């Protein structure tokens, strides 16, 4: 039986782990890259309901896997030239930022359970969140009001982001909520190498005049362009009118906002404060670095990142036990020869993280055949 991982914050109250500022190694959906021309504190009047009835909405029951990241890895395998690791010590983690944020917030979470599948394949570990029964039920029972709230965030972005650096935003057209631009980052958290995708809102172009990416220079030229730009995160929040609402914001949203932005090196969040009818009346810049200090009564950033570190150690330890049990000690240093292996990690508020082997990759495939059959072949033939 696999050991459990406890989540009490006091266990992780130690020095912030070594975390390298993430470097950009790629991008997904360059055609959807946006630009923020007007960033600052000011009064506005943005109606987030504008053209709601004509918007192209993202499916409420969308099953988010890591498919786009897998496509990226396969397409850019030769350029990235990741080594074929043979031991778990050096195994890379591949995932999305949302999953890392979810893990980071766990020691302070008291409402949302989660499930995470870990897949060991050819020396790499792929992490993918799966819907819990509670989340499936919530998706199936979304009210029209719930759908409207979700759509407001996309509309807010349309008021502030342009398709071209020197063109004004145009909110007077329906939103397509399926448009995404993502960056792919690589970072080091203590001994763990993590490669993750993250959806990005837009590039600031309010300080200096910029041009569009130099697509004629290929991926390396575009990556250099993106690495030299300042990205900004856009958020909406209801007006904070009393101490109870302030405490709720600090306890819940501030923690998630900080994790999301810190993971990708974003320093500024532009928040639109709205009323209950979806009218944004004020824009205010939030310094990401201020969020932990102003929220220290409720959460500690050291705990959040130490828990990510320990969770990744736990994943490797559980995989190691499974490998030794099924294939023997020597197999730990010959990962390339092992078949695909999976484990399901589950957590419920108030309980430790536990791991089971009852997840069938065949019944719910995350690494699809086109990836399994092709990734790694380039390096073998070199």
Automatic annotation (TrEMBL):
GO molecular function, one term: nucleotide binding
GO terms (BP aspect): NAD-cap decapping; nuclear-transcribed mRNA catabolic process
Primary localization: nucleus
Cofactor(s) recorded in Swiss-Prot or TrEMBL: a divalent metal cation
Taxonomic lineage from the root: Eukaryota, Metazoa, Ecdysozoa, Arthropoda, Hexapoda
Location of the protein in the cell: Nucleus
Keyword Nuclease: yes
Protein name in the entry: Decapping nuclease
The enzyme's E.C. designation: 3.6.1.-
Keyword Hydrolase: yes
InterPro entries for the chain: RAI1 (IPR013961), RAI1-like_fam (IPR039039)
The RAI1-like domain, residue ranges: 33-322
GO CC annotation, single: nucleus
Record PANTHER family: DECAPPING AND EXORIBONUCLEASE PROTEIN (PTHR12395:SF9), DOM-3 RELATED (PTHR12395)
Keywords: Hydrolase, Metal-binding, Nuclease, Nucleotide-binding, Nucleus, RNA-binding
Transmembrane feature ranges: none
Job of this protein: Decapping enzyme for NAD-capped RNAs: specifically hydrolyzes the nicotinamide adenine dinucleotide (NAD) cap from a subset of RNAs by removing the entire NAD moiety from the 5'-end of an NAD-capped RNA.
Family (UniProt): Belongs to the DXO/Dom3Z family.
């Amino acid at each position: 039986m696999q050991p459990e991982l406890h989540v009490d914050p006091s266990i992780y109250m130690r020095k912030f782990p070594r975390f390298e500022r993430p470097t950009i190694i790629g991008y997904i959906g360059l055609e959807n890259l946006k630009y923020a021309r007007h960033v600052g504190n000011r009064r506005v009047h943005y109606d987030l309901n504008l053209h709601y009835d004509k918007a192209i909405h993202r499916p409420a029951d969308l099953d988010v896997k890591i498919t786009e990241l897998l496509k990226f890895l396969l397409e850019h395998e030769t350029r990235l030239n990741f080594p074929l690791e043979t031991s778990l010590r050096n195994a890379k983690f591949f995932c999305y930022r949302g999953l890392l944020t979810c893990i980071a917030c766990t020691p302070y979470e008291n409402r949302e359970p989660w499930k995470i599948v870990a897949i060991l394949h050819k020396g790499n570990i792929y992490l993918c969140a799966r819907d819990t029964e509670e989340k499936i039920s919530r998706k199936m029972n979304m009210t029209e009001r719930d759908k409207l709230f979700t759509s407001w965030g996309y509309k807010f972005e349309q008021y502030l982001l342009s398709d071209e650096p020197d063109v004004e935003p145009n909110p007077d057209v329906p939103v397509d909520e399926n448009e995404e631009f993502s960056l792919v980052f690589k970072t080091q958290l203590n001994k763990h190498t993590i490669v993750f995708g993250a959806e990005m809102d837009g590039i600031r172009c309010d300080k200096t005049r910029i041009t569009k990416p130099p697509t004629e220079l290929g991926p390396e030229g575009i990556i250099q362009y993106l690495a030299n730009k300042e990205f900004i995160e856009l958020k909406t929040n209801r007006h904070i009118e009393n101490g109870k609402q302030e405490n709720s914001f600090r306890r819940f949203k501030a923690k998630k906002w900080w994790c999301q932005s810190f993971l990708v090196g974003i320093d500024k969040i532009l928040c639109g404060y709205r009323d209950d009818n979806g009218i944004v009346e004020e824009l205010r810049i939030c310094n990401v670095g201020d969020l932990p200090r102003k929220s220290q009564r409720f959460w500690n950033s050291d705990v959040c990142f130490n828990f990510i570190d320990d969770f990744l150690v736990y994943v490797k330890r559980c995989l190691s036990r499974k490998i030794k049990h099924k294939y023997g000690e020597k197999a730990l240093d010959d990962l390339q020869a092992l078949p695909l292996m999976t484990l399901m990690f589950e957590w419920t508020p108030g309980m430790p993280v536990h791991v089971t082997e009852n997840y069938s990759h065949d019944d719910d495939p995350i690494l699809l055949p086109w990836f399994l059959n092709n990734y790694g072949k380039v390096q073998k033939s070199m």
